[in-house]
Amino acid sequence: MRHAHIHLIIAALFATGLFAAPAQAAPVLCEKFGSATVQNGRYVVINNVWGADTAQCIDVNQNGGFAVTQAAHNKATNGAPASYPAIYAGCHYANCSTGSGLPMQAGSSSFNSLRTSVSMTYPSSGVWDAAYDIWFDPTPRTDGQNTGAEVMIWLNKQGSIQPVGSQVGTATLAGGTWQVWQGNIGWNVISYVRTSATSSLDFTINTFYADAISRGYAQRSWYLTSVQAGFEPWVGGAGLAVNSFSFGSGGGQTDSTPPSVPGNPSASGTTSNSTTLSWGASSDNVGVSGYDVLRATGDTFTRVGGGTGTSYTDSGLSPATTYRYRIRARDAAGNLSSESATVTVTTQQGGGGGGGCAVTPTTQTTWNNGYVIQPVTVTNRGTSALSSWTVTFALPSGHTITGMWNASYTVSGGTVTVRSNGALGPNASTSFGYQATRPNGNTQVPTGYTCA
Known about the structure:
Shape: elongated
Helix content: under 10%
CATH architecture of the largest domain: Sandwich
Protein name: Cellulose binding domain-containing protein
Largest sheet: 11 strands, mixed
Family: Belongs to the glycosyl hydrolase 12 (cellulase H) family.
Strand content: over 45%
Oligomer: single chain
Number of helices: 2
Radius of gyration: 25 Å
CATH topology of the largest domain: Jelly Rolls
Organism: Nonomuraea insulae
Pfam family, one: Glyco_hydro_12
Structural class: mainly beta
InterPro entries: CBD2, CBM2/CBM3_carb-bd_dom_sf, CBM2_carb-bd_dom_sf, ConA-like_dom_sf, FN3_dom, FN3_sf, GH11/12, GH12
Number of domains: 3
């Protein structure tokens, strides 16, 4: 089982003063929900023993960190952790730092420049993870439980533990490769687990949040409420330490280094009205946040789409027309790479006596983690019979087709290719259908259907 990371700190307890923060910063915190400010209130350090009654003490570093000096935890690894001792900027159950500028809407111009860094020390014993916990809410909340998204960034872990939900993919972000996990426990939990452990990290918040948005788990309209860095111990925990932590606009550093030039693009699956482009990944000193697809029919290239992956299907093209494409990469600080080499694509002639074919999908039903699309109607708009037809569409990240009827299909790089089981007469129609699963809380269905 996967642990449910739920910070069950009840705001009413703070309001009554039972768990109120001490008036002055204390060098050692042993109270379950004890807290202290550091750097004149710029950050808050919390003991936060929310999942157990065992002892835990942390030694607060006024320079901006803490060390776990005592931890008597011994929890089963198939459940929730004992605690989350952390340092943070922003607000956590009405306990707010000063000068953070949070809450801040993720769609604001200031959000893209928000940067954070951390340096940690790990013991060789115990069962724990070392992770950022970054919270988003649909409202500018300063108290209570956030209900938008919880973005966890695991720098390291020890023992047989894993995040909420299930793995839905991988990502290359902030100079590392990460497993991407997603689950829903009343809000979306999106966890990034580094495939090679690190003791330090420096990144823009948008690096990971943009990836979560692209997967359908978060929204630009939501508000960042807190940025926390700490540890989730199940067993032991003494020796875990945050040596330094920073948060702010630029985080004291400015990223002015653009990503490398994307690898040469290529085109495949070209029809009368679409083509699929693929290219080699770029690298960046912090992390590539996405790619822009540029298209030209004359001398000027303009952006027509993009995303976080290294492929893109451009649809709505004209038959028998030549297009040129280039790719550029971007990072979370807004730096753009140089444009890639050019690939030239000529779409096919319209089939079926000049009429071609058309495809119309219908969503029959959806549920929390799946859906049925039927009928997907394919129509020969021409005056001549089609000996065969092909329909392509994009399958969102984390989605899997579990069955298809009245047609055969293949999946490559997130693109589904459906092929006919027979000919289609002039002005005639046929249909197929399919069922698919998707991650809990993801409301996407496939888009970008094209027919050739």
